[in-house]
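Here is an idea for our session: we take a single protein and study its fold together. To get us started, please write out a protein record for me. Start from the sequence, derive the backbone structure tokens from it, and show both lines together. Go ahead whenever you are ready, and we will take it from there:
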Amino acid sequence: MAQLPISNKRRYCEISAVILTALGKFVFMDYLEWRFAFVLVAIISWLVYIIHRHKTQNGIIKYWGFRTDNFFKVAKRVVPFGLVAVIGFIAIGWYNKTINVTWHIIPILVLYPIWGCIQQFLLIALTAGNLQHIKGLQWHKWLIVLLSAVLFGAIHYPWAWLMAGTFILALFYGFIYFRERNIYVLGLFHGWLGALFYYTVVGRDPFLEMFGGLFGM
């Protein structure tokens, strides 16, 4: 896809904002355990930015990958990876006896893709996408994808399985994105795979972690 006239200053600012959001995760989600509040504020804040940029620069939405014209084309590339991943999740969970699937997974499967789209927007579009087109940088795509994957894995510290899983996912998604930009597909599968990963490999219940305090669970 053709580049848009975006200054280096804006690209660096966007990457910095992504890093601040990542640091906020450690403070508000991990340390203070304000998981629901952090996710809600992050989603709303970045949606406001997306809307603002859409109103001020023509074509930015499609440039980032918020598009439907290539949805099924990208989905065909991601589905095989997703099927292999799910089989792997079940096998690992069965071996480690960490499978803990309850009805809680249903709302997570519905809601988590929204957060997944925002995460892919931050990681792939604003981080990898900006690094690819910063004037004077000229990093190879392999390096950009690797650095983005390392960042995504590091965000999930200290959970080793999550770090490994998100690193592999980010590697695969990075190359998919550089070939066919589509945040919707990547975010949707991110949400579904992430939900299944939690309830099989990790043995955690993100529903309780997010909403348990709200409903007194």
User: Anything to note?
Assistant: The chain is about 80% helix and 0% strand.
